[in-house]
Amino acid sequence: MKKRIKLLLAEDDAIIALSTSRILIKNGYDVIIVHNGIKSIEAVKNDPEIDLVLMDINLGSGIDGTEAAKEILKIKALPVIFLTSHSEKEVVDKVKKITRYGYVIKNSGEFVLLEAISMAMELFTVNQELKKDIYERIKTEKELKLSENRLNTIFLSSPAGICVNTADKGLFVDINEAFTKITGYNKEDLVGKEPIGLGLWFNDEFSRLAENTLQNTGKISNIEITFRKKSGDIGFAMISSEFIIYNNMNCVLTLINDLTENKNNLSALSESRKILNNSQKAAGFDFWTVDLNSESLNTVSLGDIKWFDSENGFEFDEILKVTHPDDLELVRSAWEGAVKGESYELEHRVIINNEIRWFFVKADVEKNELGVPVKIIGVTIDITERKNAEE
Questions:
Q1: Strand partners, 54
Q2: Is 229:189 a contact under the CB 8 Å cutoff?
Q3: For 16-32, how does the pLDDT look when each residue is reduced to its tens digit (9 = 90+)?
Q4: Which of 30, 155, 346, 354 could be bridged to 6 by S-S, CB 3.0 to 4.6 A?
């Protein structure tokens, strides 16, 4: 019987933890729930069967998720996926220095969460197997003949891209076929040349940072990079590097897992969402959100409701200005209730370009962990034709 994958879920919000665990258990995972960073570290110490960690970045009081993840990785090599309620750059930067296998925005949906876990397990398994198959062999076989023969065998069989560069100047010494497939460069293009001189690394500053990390720690583990293919196209990869002896030279072995297809799939998903948005426009739908901290109304997609056509949002009073006088109190009362945390659903009239139109509006309120309303998510539908037909 196949062993069930065991996940550690570190989430300080009990409700979110419960709902997330139900999704995971329903899809065949075993789940351990903890509500703070210290408990997550203890769980990994005490349970050697944990296969993956889902770590909330903000765990309330005590150490946060990033600190807990650092301590966990000192105990055991595990794939860590960070969970967050935010997608700001500061949140991403906070976990950049930690070996992780992605991060998931909370409430992204069951599909996104499960795909992130599946991808993380696959990448972790491949990385562990390749490290064992490559690094252990090279370390234990330091003699020229053995290391060269075994490295050539690995080059031929490895599905990951592999390159060997001199440790002092970074000149290419050797690459495998997978590296050629990933970058478009063949051996003749690269041997004796530097990656920076070829423009292979998309960001020269990053390449210098990676070089400093390698010099200071002796290795690079699972760092995501952007590179430029021979064709000029941009690619994405996760790399790991370590010093080796190759042909009696001090060299650096780099393992490259291509992430470009995954990134392109995300781009295709974004395009699908655009198609959906266009369909919503054609149907006269408008979806909108209100950040109650800024009181700015921002439309996610635009339909036929022209006053919503604003890139920078607008005040609620602008809606009242076009609301039919007989419906003003109805709309104002519903809105004031929403600000206090009450969802609503109503039909009301507006006057646009001297024409009376009917709208159906449904709004739901999101609250934070303290029960304070933070966001209103709504849909507005033009139902004028239906109303006219009823009359």
A1: 9, 81
A2: no
A3: 889 899 999 999 999 99
A4: 30
